Amino acid sequence: MAMMVEVRDLVKYYGPVLAVSRVNFEVAPGEVVGFLGPNGAGKTTTLKILAGFLAPSAGTASINGYDCVTQSLGVRRSLGYLPESVCLYPDLTVSQFLKFAARAKGVEAKKERSEVERVVAACGLEEVRHTLSAALSKGFRQRLGLAQALIGDPPLLILDEPTIGLDPSQIVEIRSMIKELAGSHTVILSSHILPEVSQLCQRVIIINRGQIVASDTPENLSRQLGHGARIGLMVRGPAAEVEAALQAIGGVIQVSCQGEGRYLVEGGDEEDLAPKLARRVVEQGWELMELKAQEFTLEEVFLNLVTEEGS
Amino acid sequence: MKGLSGCLALMRKELTVYFATPIFYLTGFFFLVLAGYFFYTNVLYYSIISFQVVQQAAQNPQVAGQLNPQQMVFRPLLGALAIVLLLLVPLLTMRLLAEEKRSGTAELLFTYPLSDWAVILGKFLAALLVYLILVGLTLTYGVVFAFVARLDWGSLITGYLGLILLGGSCLSLGLFVSSLTENQIVAGVAAFALLLLFWIIGLVQELGSGGPGGIFQYLSMMEHYESFTRGVIDTRDLVYYFSFIYFFLFLTKRQLESRRWRA
User: Fold this and answer.
1) Is B110 an interface residue toward A (CB < 8 Å)?
2) Fewest CB within 10 angstroms: A17, A59, B182, B221, which?
3) pLDDT value at position B205?
4) Where do the structural domains in chain A lie, given as residue ranges?
5) What SS3 state is found at B100?
6) Confidence at residue A311, expressed as pLDDT on a 0 to 100 scale
7) Hey, how many other C-beta atoms are within 10 angstroms of the C-beta on B163?
8) What is the interface size between A and B, counted as CB pairs within 8 Å?
């Protein structure tokens, strides 16, 4: 199957500063991929190159079969782009701006009106359609930015920090819009908000210091990169003794007491840690109230990766 | 065809912005006030001379034949309008590309499927159309004048053709300067300085230097405008203006291309 996005050995220098360093990835049609990384990691630069706004210093990127440098117009016809800071023409009203976007993207004159109506409805812009862009609230600006990306129904959407600066209810709205787009569109979005990425994306690409450090589904990432197992226990028994007994089991790295009989045990990669723990507790005559394997959250995976890279 | 529709899309957007912001109305107002003032004083001068000629006509009948409204009213008017436009054109062009960069809308514009030429021509043609509206309004002077005197429309239209070509050249230079900076004020001031330079560069010739002075004279906008105001269309002047316009639009294209790489 032909890939929607193919990036090979992409490098970008800003003067002497290396922003993106030999990045490789692919995105299949219909996939929703999240770009995750701390600020300044190279997310926005990579997306700008994909959108045809910047040229790479080395390497290639292609979208929908078009090369980002030599076939820039074909690339730009295949995508809708929402920049990180949504910039709009302050002197145009919402509908004037969307009409311009439709014409610029080559929407046929006959379909122009219906296309504008479609995105206005999809992004909930009905009440502000005659408002000047300069007078829009942050939430509406972001929606207008999304609307202009959607116009012309491009197969690929590149959304750079789509929910930044929005209030919680707006974030929920934008996220549900992106979820609706999944399947019919390929979506690449960047974020430094981890729950957002794990909710929305089928695959996460973690980027740090211009390099890809991990790329997998959110579930696999937390499993693989959690470094070993983590088990939560609730035991009725003398706290100090329980802690010491658990610590003594082979394979246990750390036990932390969380109060009210709750303990968190971190172990190595052994699979039979849970039965060992249960057996020991029962042998000692204490009551085992609860035993639960805990997955690492994406935050922890992310911090792990980013700090490992740094050290 | 795709390129053309993109160019038209951009042109319509630029015109919407021109008519939505005060800059067009403000420049239009002052341009027409100044143009009206020059027209009025020229007509006044012409009528005073005419009276004197009528009085002298008894002694010297040939003098009356030399009274020519094109020479005495419209030629100085066209000269004055050109100077006023020198001041106004930077106001029309300074925003075009500088503002896109400053406000960040360039990121949208250059990720739309528009070729660089569509962007440049769309912006240039929008500014040219605004310019044509301003200049076109002064054609009413000719119409008014035609009611009271006989007018050589041919030479007047030729003069206006010169004014349009001159304006086009100034606009292309202004557009180029606007592509160099993010700051509108810098774009405006630099465009004005460059236009002034191209205006007066021919004066070197009058200082009496030979050889290279001729080159400067050929480069001068004023020099080529002269013959149009006399009612003469010279292909050398047409070639000059069309190359001038193309040259600066081409530089603008190169500047936009380089933006992707320098970033």
Assistant:
1) yes
2) A17
3) 66
4) 5-224, 230-295
5) helix
6) 46
7) 22
8) 79
